[in-house]
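Design a sequence for this backbone.
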């Protein structure tokens, strides 16, 4: 076994690897960018080495700097985590050339599965079913359109080097193909440096079921399946294991196909074989097809760990150090059911825009596993994926595990940034999901309900006013011998309080009065126990009460802006201005593309809010801008 390893990653996966290494008595080395100097993974590791600037290309994608850090600190092996260099075969070769061990598959195995078209060509001779489609080298637009016609609409355009939903477009009509192709190729070029795509038949009732495999370079076992069908824009939201409705025959067929795929390339370490499944007639052994293989540890690996009792990172370290596979196939069993929900800093009602901010408060539910790379006081940076944590629950049945997940999400407390917590909690309580009716289109069909801003309880609003007034501990500010004093509180909507004594406050909002009393077990509003917690920040108050309710506190000295919102196109988040499509004096119509911003690995298109003429283009392509920066101004309407 290694005595010291370096983790070539950041965030929650770096912390996850450090935890297992520490339990195994293995010392760890962290690497970090300038933006991550105070990060949790840096604090957890035994040693830490700075490797460059905040942009990934200047730090976490610098293979030479990472290898140098390993040699400098005496690390014997490098764990790549997921993302960044984890599936870069040239980096794997460079690690080996430096006399170090890469904790994962060989460079050749990664190359074999690195491009979706080549991987599918390799799978057919190995007896692994593949989705009907075009995986050829001819990337001419007319030729690809002809192939789409031959396959039959709807079709899916997918970047051959893709992942995470980038470079992927669903096309339902031939007339939309050319625009979708150009968009997919542009995003693929930006994300992967490779604009090539493949065309696949789109399965109309699709389920995304993947199989966890583990190999030692010669033989492989599978650790059963995960269902990752709950997706938004091809990105996973909630994962579970085992898959609902799975039959023994289907599980055996998928497991055998997955191990054949791994053994066909001499796979070593943890990997995932992803399948698309036609769920229109239940789960049938003749209705699944190979999509791709992820040659690394997956984000959702904890649900497999929960149902099998296997620490996959421990297995990675053991096999990479030369040990045989820790278990045979017949020794692996499933116990209970598990779920994982991905908690992100993102503004769901605004279209899932990634968000930034300082986590002024972070507390997880006591009865769940929370894998995280951040702490209270840490900053969600625009440079990296805005994941805050993965919330994992495990129970004896699917219904119990799902109930645990919903409760854990409702009890998780985050302040300092907006999150998708309410969205996840609604999804966990969705009746169709509870019945096991899952497919990749569920979120899209229910998006208006799932993504709507959560209703604000009147009691939460009253408690927010008390917090804004600085009276959360029940101080008797304003109380005199002659009677209570009524005073206004800066709030939206306008509010006023009347303090009757310590911990006895009446709150008036829009003419409605609520009586609030601070008892030994917390605040009571109109006699009802609230069980609420509070976080006060400089310009906001968050009340935690069956979810998080954030209230902005207006600055009474702040003057309103005279600029018309419809005249200005503002940056909705910090990011890079990738493209600008308009020039001064150009006529545009409502909905026309004005610019594209890139933030947190995703593209976001800025559209004209109304018809008009471009008065000014206030930004250049390639500029890095902050949230709220003015990008484009329209001439005032006459």
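Sequence:
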């Amino acid at each position: 076994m290694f005595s010291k390893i370096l983790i070539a990653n950041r965030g929650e996966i770096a912390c996850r690897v450090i935890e297992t290494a520490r339990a195994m008595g293995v010392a760890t080395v962290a690497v970090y960018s300038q933006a991550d100097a105070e990060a949790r993974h840096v604090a957890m590791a035994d040693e830490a080495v700075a490797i460059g600037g905040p942009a990934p290309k200047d730090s976490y994608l610098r293979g030479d700097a990472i290898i140098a850090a390993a040699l400098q600190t005496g690390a014997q092996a490098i764990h790549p985590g997921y993302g960044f260099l984890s599936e870069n075969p040239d980096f794997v070769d460079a690690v080996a050339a430096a006399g170090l061990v890469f904790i994962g598959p060989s460079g050749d195995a990664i190359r074999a599965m690195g491009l979706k078209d080549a991987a599918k060509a390799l799978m057919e001779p190995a007896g692994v079913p593949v989705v009907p489609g075009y995986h050829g080298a001819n990337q001419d637009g007319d030729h690809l359109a002809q192939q789409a016609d031959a396959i039959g609409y709807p079709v899916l355009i997918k970047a051959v080097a893709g992942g995470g939903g980038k470079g992927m477009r669903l096309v339902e009509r031939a007339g939309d193909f050319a625009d979708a192709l150009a968009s997919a190729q542009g995003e693929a070029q930006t994300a992967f440096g490779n604009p090539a795509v493949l065309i696949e038949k789109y399965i109309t009732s699709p389920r995304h079921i993947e199989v966890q495999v583990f190999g030692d370079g010669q033989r492989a076992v599978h650790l059963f399946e995960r269902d990752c069908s709950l997706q938004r824009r091809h990105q996973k939201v909630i994962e579970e294991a085992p898959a609902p409705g799975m039959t023994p025959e289907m599980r055996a067929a998928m497991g055998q196909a997955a191990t054949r795929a791994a053994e066909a390339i001499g796979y070593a370490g943890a990997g995932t074989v992803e399948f698309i499944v036609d769920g229109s007639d239940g789960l049938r052994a003749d209705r699944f097809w190979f999509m791709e293989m992820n040659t690394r540890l997956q984000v959702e690996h904890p649900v497999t760990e929960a149902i099998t009792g296997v620490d996959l990172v421990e297995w990675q370290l053991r096999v990479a150090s030369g040990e045989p596979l820790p278990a045979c196939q017949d020794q692996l069993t499933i116990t209970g059911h598990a779920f994982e929900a991905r908690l992100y800093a993102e503004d769901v009602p605004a279209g899932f825009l990634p968000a930034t901010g300082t986590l002024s408060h972070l507390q997880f539910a006591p009865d769940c596993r929370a894998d995280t790379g951040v702490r209270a006081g840490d900053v969600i940076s625009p440079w990296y994926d805005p994941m805050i944590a993965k919330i994992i629950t495990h129970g004896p049945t699917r219904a119990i595990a799902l109930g645990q997940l919903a409760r854990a999400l409702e009890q998780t407390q985050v302040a300092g940034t907006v999150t998708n917590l309410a969205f996840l909690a609604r999804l966990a309580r969705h009746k169709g999901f509870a019945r096991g009716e899952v497919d990749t289109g569920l979120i899209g069909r229910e998006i208006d309900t799932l993504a709507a801003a959560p209703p604000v309880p009147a009691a939460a609003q009253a408690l927010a006013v008390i917090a804004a007034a600085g009276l959360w501990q029940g101080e008797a500010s304003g109380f005199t011998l002659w009677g209570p004093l009524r005073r206004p509180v800066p709030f939206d909507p306008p509010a006023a309080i009347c303090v009757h004594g310590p911990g006895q406050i009446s709150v008036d909002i829009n003419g409605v009065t609520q009586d609030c009393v601070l008892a030994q077990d917390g605040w009571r509003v109109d006699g009802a126990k609230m069980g609420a917690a509070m976080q006060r920040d400089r310009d906001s108050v968050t009340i935690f009460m069956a979810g998080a309710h954030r209230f902005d506190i207006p600055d009474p000295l702040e003057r309103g802006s005279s600029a018309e919102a419809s005249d200005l196109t503002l940056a909705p988040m910090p990011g890079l201005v990738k493209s600008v499509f308009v020039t001064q004096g150009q006529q545009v119509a409502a909905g026309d593309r004005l610019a594209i911003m890139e933030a947190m690995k995703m593209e976001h298109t800025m559209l004209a809010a109304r018809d008009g003429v471009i008065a000014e283009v206030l930004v250049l392509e390639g500029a890095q801008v902050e949230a709220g920066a003015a990008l484009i101004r329209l001439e005032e309407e006459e």
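The longest strand covers residues 220-232.
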